[in-house]
Specification:
291 residues, amino-acid biosynthesis, binds 5,10-Methenyltetrahydrofolate, 2 domains, alpha/beta, one-carbon metabolism, oxidoreductase, Rossmann fold, single chain, globular, histidine biosynthesis
């Protein structure tokens, strides 16, 4: 048996088409969603992401505002820019690309973003809202994984999910979203005892550790759904956290890298921007996007 490929690239394209339709409807009412992306410094990978975010933002009909600041920008200057974006009615979503240069306090910067414009869902208020089941902005990568899982499995209720990785941007919010869908969730990490045996219990395995080929084929329960969040640049090109060739012989379904979770992250950023725009204008949330 060989696993079904979960085509995140195609799913993301469909999602963007749907978002474009909703943007056109808003524009007919005189509302154009706007997304501001702030990049501090010149990290080459970050530049690639920011360019592709800007391009896709325009493709769905939204306004894109890019702000590039030198790496040595004082934190106060970045905070002043965020204040201006918070106050700008043309800006519905604000994303500050991470990681920030070492002299900046990431938490302070993120928490300066108006929570209703925090389309990354990283602001402490959105983290708390997600954890307590209130309407929030939800982090894009876990949201994209959730959409792929629901599409593949339907209900996640009662499924055993193992999330490897406990970061604030992927592991923890992923666990919250799975829990909200009534999965039984375990968060595993570098100190977890007998990680392979734990993973073999999982109907849903989400790998978000940032180590190439970390998850072996023998870690996977036959028929399991495997979501690979890893984006590791190696001499062999872009590889995930899962040994894809080994895993696909065992799993029921698996996301590839590239073409899996990555494209969903950007599509969900646009989905959150659309939702933020609807909320800012007192309109109902668009269906099936930001949960
Ligand atoms: N505030 C903030 N929000 C983010 O969402 C954020 C961030 N900072 N910092 C960096 C990470 C990384 N990230 C990716 C987005 C798309 C792809 C993506 O589209 N990947 C393609 C391949 C792209 C390639 O070839 O490099 C794929 O997997 O198929 C990957 C990674 C968003 N991030």
């Amino acid at each position: 048996m060989t696993a079904t490929l979960i085509d995140g690239k195609a799913f993301a394209a469909g999602l963007r088409a749907r978002i474009a339709t909703e943007v056109a409807a808003l524009k007919a009412r005189g509302i154009t969603p706007g997304l501001a992306v702030v990049l501090v410094g010149a990290d080459p990978a970050s530049q690639v992401y920011v360019r592709s975010k800007g391009k896709q933002t325009l493709e769905v009909g939204m306004n894109s505002f890019e702000h590039r600041l030198p790496a040595e920008t004082p934190e106060a200057e970045l905070l002043a820019l965020i204040e201006r974006l918070n106050a700008d009615p043309a800006v519905n979503g604000i994303l500050v690309q991470l990681p920030l240069p070492g002299h900046m306090n990431e938490a302070a910067v993120i928490n300066a973003i108006a929570p209703e414009k925090d389309v990354d869902g990283f602001h402490i208020l959105n983290v708390g809202r997600l954890a307590t089941g209130q309407k929030a902005m939800v982090p894009c990568t876990p949201l994209g994984c959730l959409m792929l899982l629901r599409d593949r499995l339907g209900s996640l209720s009662g499924k055993r999910a193992v999330v490897i990785g406990r970061s604030n941007i992927v592991g923890k919010p992923m666990a919250q979203l799975l829990l909200r869908d009534s999965a039984t969730v375990t968060i595993a990490h570098s100190r977890t005892a007998d990680l392979p045996a734990l993973c073999r219990e999982a109907d849903i395995l989400v790998a978000a550790v940032g180590r190439p080929l970390f998850v072996g084929g023998d870690w996977i329960r036959p028929g399991a759904t495997v979501v690979d969040v890893g984006i590791n640049r190696t001499d062999d090109g872009l590889v995930g956290d899962v040994d894809f060739e080994a895993a696909r012989k065992v799993a029921g379904a698996i996301t590839p890298v590239p073409g899996g979770v990555g494209p969903m992250t950007i599509a969900c950023l646009l989905a959150n921007t659309l939702t933020a725009t609807a909320r800012a204008n007192g309109l109902p949330d668009p269906d099936g996007l930001t949960p």
